[in-house]
Design a protein that fits this description.
Layout (H helix, E strand, L loop, with lengths): L2 E7 L2 E7 L5 E4 L6 E2 L10 E6 L2 E6 L7 E2 L3 E2 L5 E4 L4 E4 L2 E7 H5 L3 E3 L6 E3 L16 E3 L6
Parallel strand pairs: 3-4
Antiparallel strand pairs: 1-2, 1-11, 3-5, 5-6, 6-9, 7-8, 7-10, 10-11, 12-13, 12-14
The structure holds zinc ion.
Zinc ion binds next to loops.
């Protein structure tokens, strides 16, 4: 289980691997595991950690807000689970989270009609024949 954090500063792309086996600190200070070289980012901004195959981000700065999905600011010491494709903003720096293994893993799809789980390779439900085009995609780890 690992993930990748991507960000952009002045049109330059950066990315760093999140191995998942230990927490990773993010910030401007050189001693952080992931150094984001922007004056808008706190010396120690956040921590990303993995628990039971899910990644979480925890706000470590009291003063520099970290906004999740442009929706809400994480409170100091506040934690939120990260889905694949989740993005966060600190000042004008945008961070994007990619959960590599979850994204690459085979997934199942739940039939809208009979609620059975099928492999995503099927076009129609084997049980009731309903098209799976609008079925709900389930990441593998949710029922493994
Ligand atoms: Zn069905």
């Amino acid at each position: 289980m690992y993930a990748v954090l991507c960000w952009e500063i002045a049109q330059q792309q950066f990315s760093a691997c999140l191995p998942g086996v230990r927490p990773v600190t993010i910030g401007r200070r050189a001693t952080c595991d992931i150094v984001i070289d922007s004056p808008l980012v706190a010396t120690e901004q956040a921590q990303i950690f993995c628990r039971r195959d899910r990644f979480y981000i925890r706000q470590l700065s009291r003063f520099v807000p970290l906004c999740v999905q442009n929706e809400y600011e994480l409170p100091y010491r506040g934690t939120v689970a990260l889905r694949d494709g989740a993005f966060m903003t600190v000042g004008t720096v945008r961070l994007e989270f990619r959960a590599m293994q979850v994204a690459a893993a085979p997934r199942k799809v739940r039939c809208n009609h009979c609620k059975n789980l099928l492999d995503v390779t099927h076009e129609n439900c084997l049980w009731c024949g309903t098209s799976l085009a609008f079925g709900e995609l389930m990441p593998l780890h949710e029922f493994a």
